[in-house]
Specification:
The protein has helices at about 5-15, 15-25, 35-55, 60-80. It has about 80 residues and is mainly α. It has one domain. Helix 2 (about 15-25) packs across helix 4 (about 60-80) and helix 3 runs antiparallel to helix 4. The radius of gyration is 14 Å and the shape is flat.
Length: about 80
């Protein structure tokens, strides 16, 4: 696989983290407020580990960035009064 196709594939997968985060937040509306601190912790740990693994393994790093994006969307939606019940 060429380098350009790999980069485009990684970008596409990271863009798909946004609809995945909104879908997860929509499916779990009632748990968003209770799990806010855990989503914050998961996003923080994922971001720190993504930076560390950036130097060793890009696949793991991008996976952690995906998890971080999904978690941050859940944190944002947990504060939206129109979203949670």
């Amino acid at each position: 696989m060429s380098q350009t196709i790999q980069i485009l594939l990684v970008i596409l997968i990271l863009i798909l983290a946004f609809p995945a985060g909104y879908l997860l937040a929509w499916l779990c509306k009632d748990e968003l407020v209770q799990g806010r601190k855990w989503f914050k912790l998961l996003a923080l740990i994922s971001t720190i580990l993504a930076v560390i693994f950036l130097f060793f393994n890009l696949t793991i790093s991008f996976t952690l960035v995906f998890i971080s994006i999904v978690s941050l969307i859940s944190v944002a939606k947990s504060k939206d009064r129109k979203w949670v019940k």
